[in-house]
Design goal:
The protein has 6 helices and 19 strands. By secondary structure, the protein is α+β, with helices and mostly antiparallel strands. The chain folds into 2 domains: 189 residues, Lipoprotein localisation LolA/LolB/LppX (outer membrane lipoprotein receptor (LolB), chain A); 118 residues, Phosphorylase Kinase, domain 1 (2-Layer Sandwich). The strands form 2 sheets. A 12-stranded mixed beta sheet has the order 7-8-9-10-11-1-2-3-4-5-6-12. It has a 7-stranded antiparallel beta sheet with strand order 13-14-15-16-18-17-19.
Length: 366
């Protein structure tokens, strides 16, 4: 018995030593690089910041980045499946008998892009180790990300597996001090591999299938302007250290839109710009809740920001537009349902944990 106790203590000391051997910066960097390329199966709860809905999912992931998410609860969403096999992204809603297909985004993020994002993060956050906890039976280092623009973005806390560098838990805290765990792993295992059939979608009946063209990254904003048919405006002065990372063309059934991507390393923001049809905007509910109207072009801001941050970005966009056209711009507030006119926006993602697939579960029409 004494040998068992001593062994247990030594194991604990070893874990503490492993935790102390890396800096907070290195743990976050390794999580950003490795998290989406570790083979595991887990049960996880997801909470959206702005309401009390809790969704429980099973996530299976391969070292290739292929992944499958199955919704376990609530009952209203149970059975929804999202599969990304590295070639094709598939969303299946059995209740609506609807399948949505799109090119996989897994291979589109390079190591260089992740390293660049990490450098941006270091400029905008102070990273601090707070201790070691157990999450889902795993030893996890707890790291606080304290933003320098503390009034505009969420402070974050990551629990990172000290061995596998998987983010096991993520917490956000807004400028008022209100906190919420937005992603929490309840159980997790790390098999050597997963069966190939794991990433196959089994359909019930004959659901309707919709193919959606994936957003297309352009090397220059001028190319985006040419594709959408109007001059795209890029704000030069963004708050909270938000850096421009690229521009995409988003294809809808009736419209083509520009999507400008910004990040502070942890927070992600997208500015959408699209042409309206007559007096109608290219959306019924603009991302972020309101839009700017410049002639026939509408602009909107979306991102994982608290209200103060969204307003700051919106004002930066408004200023940029006013400088370009030399006149005030019209603001429209619309709060209708989320049924868009053929536009399927790519959700803004938290690359470190809340993946594109997981955020899509909250809003199947987004």
């Amino acid at each position: 018995m004494r040998f068992f106790v001593v062994s247990f203590v030594l194991i604990g000391v070893g874990v503490a030593g492993a935790q102390a051997s890396r800096s907070a910066e290195e743990y976050v960097r390794l999580a950003m690089l490795k998290d989406q390329f570790v083979t595991y199966s887990c049960i996880r709860t997801l909470h959206r910041w702005d309401d009390d809905e809790c969704i429980r999912v099973r996530r299976d992931q391969a070292s290739s980045g292929a992944n499958k998410i199955t919704v376990l609860s609530p009952l209203s969403k149970q059975g929804r499946i999202i599969v990304d096999d590295g070639r094709q992204w598939t969303s299946y809603d059995p209740d609506r008998q609807l399948v949505v297909l799109q090119e996989s985004p897994v291979s589109k993020v390079s190591r260089a892009e992740i390293e660049a994002r990490f450098e941006i993060l270091k400029r905008n956050y102070n990273l601090r180790k707070e201790g070691v906890d157990r999450v889902a039976g795993r030893v996890a280092v707890r790291i606080a990300l304290e933003p320098r623009a503390e009034d505009l973005v969420f402070a974050r806390r990551y629990w990172i597996d000290v061995e596998k560098f998987v983010l096991l838990r993520v917490e956000w805290t807004d400028p008022s001090g209100r906190s919420r765990i937005v992603s929490d792993t309840l159980s997790i295992s790390f098999p050597e591999s997963l069966p190939a059939e794991t990433f196959q979608t089994k359909l019930l009946g004959k659901p309707e299938t919709i193919r959606v063209q994936a957003p297309k990254r352009m090397s220059r904003v001028e190319e985006v302007s040419k594709a959408v048919g109007f001059e795209v405006i890029v704000p030069q002065k963004m708050p909270a250290g938000l850096a421009f990372t690229g521009a995409d063309v988003v294809y809808g059934r009736r419209s083509v839109m520009a999507a400008l991507r910004f990040t502070d390393g942890a927070t992600n923001v997208t500015i959408y710009q699209g042409k309206g049809d007559g007096n109608d905007a290219p959306w019924r509910f603009p991302p972020g809740g309101k839009s700017l109207k410049v002639g026939s072009v509408y602009l909107a801001v979306d991102g994982d920001l608290p209200p103060s941050g969204k307003e700051a970005v919106f004002q930066a966009l408004k200023q940029a537009v006013s400088q370009v056209i030399g006149a005030p711009v019209e603001i429209e507030d619309r709060h209708e349902d989320c049924d868009r006119k053929g536009i399927r926006f790519e959700p803004v993602t938290d690359r470190a944990r809340l993946t594109r697939d997981e955020r899509t579960i909250f809003a199947p029409c987004a």
